[in-house]
Amino acid sequence: MTSDFEAQLRAVSLRVTRPRLAVLAALRDHRHVDTETVITLVREELPSVSHQAVYDVLRALTDAGLVRRIQPAGATARYESRVGDNHHHVVCRSCGAIADVDCTVGHSPCLTASDDAGFRVDEAEVVFWGTCPDCSAENSANEPPVGRK
Ligand SMILES: [Zn+2]
Ligand SMILES: [Zn+2]
């Protein structure tokens, strides 16, 4: 697998470094993780890596298009390595859990804006908000019984 990551880095003219490989590996195994989680995962492999180094790697990989950064309003930025398919996300208002949602209409990137105001649209980013199954289950468990008479 490591050689795949090396090829990915070379394809975008980024130097192959251990922190970059470790970040790519972390994002392969964990989707939609925030920076703190990435740092924790990378440190399992490279204990001495600094916060700043991981920030820099995430920025370089995001700029190069190998990593996608998602930042739902009011939430911390998350990163994922599923790029290039313009999938969307559904976010839980309660716990911040994020799941992938594939393009629903036609193929990516959902470019049929009803009125594009003259812009040449090349990307659509849709965030669906709701309550995840865990939180829904918890909410209904905590609800007081409706027994008003
Ligand atoms: Zn939730
Ligand atoms: Zn995603």
Automatic annotation (TrEMBL):
Single GO MF annotation: zinc ion binding
A biological-process GO annotation: negative regulation of DNA-templated transcription
Signal peptide: none
Family affiliation: Belongs to the Fur family.
Cofactor note: Binds 1 zinc ion per subunit.
Cofactor(s) for this UniProt protein: Zn(2+)
Species of the source: Saccharothrix carnea
Protein name: Fur family ferric uptake transcriptional regulator
GO-annotated cellular components: cytoplasm
Cellular compartments annotated: Cytoplasm
Binding site for Zn(2+): C92, C95, C132, C135
InterPro entries given in the database record: FUR, Fur_C, WH-like_DNA-bd_sf, WH_DNA-bd_sf
Top-level taxon: Bacteria
UniProt keyword list: Cytoplasm, DNA-binding, Iron, Metal-binding, Repressor, Transcription, Transcription regulation, Zinc
